[in-house]
Fold:
Amino acid sequence: KGEFSIIVNAVKGKRVVPVTYKTKAVIIATAGNQVLPLIETLPNFVKKFFGMVKYTRTINIYCIGKTKLFKNISAIWLPLQETPYFSAIFHNWHQRKYNEWAYFGLNVRENMISKFKQGNRFDHKKIEKLIHNQFKGIKDIEINKIHYWKSALPVFYPGYLQKVYSFLRQSNHERRIFYAGDYLENPSIEGAVTSGLKAADRVLRSID
Structure:
């Protein structure tokens, strides 16, 4: 019948149990470096392409502190000579300001991740001290959350777009599995959304 099974984890009461669904088509919309473990049997050209998809990594640190830094700006890209640890600092505009207090976030440079992450743990006090040393204009820093992002942005290295176009041409004849993600368009939210719209259009055309 051209159907295949999808096994997902579902919560039933206090237990997580595998549930199997039968389907004729599926859109895989996830980071490109996480596609291969999802499907047991894939054509060789698909395995080859996704084996070449690479992503950058980063750590996002969300804090609160006393500062006037974000009075007229929302984000600053930080040159390497200014700080070897952070690539950007940004204001969390969706969080309400309280007088001189501001919510903000920091992006950690990929080559500095090991300085912040020890196994699966983060030393908040050590990181707060490092932020104080790097940003003298921010006082009384407290970390609210630290998120390790192992699939931050797809790497568009020289020759990568040719591999994408070749993959799309070959997969265009597929009528059961459709792929969507920033790795197929450009490394941004807009790229992910555009790719999703194109995948949805292919699905609709395949069932006409």
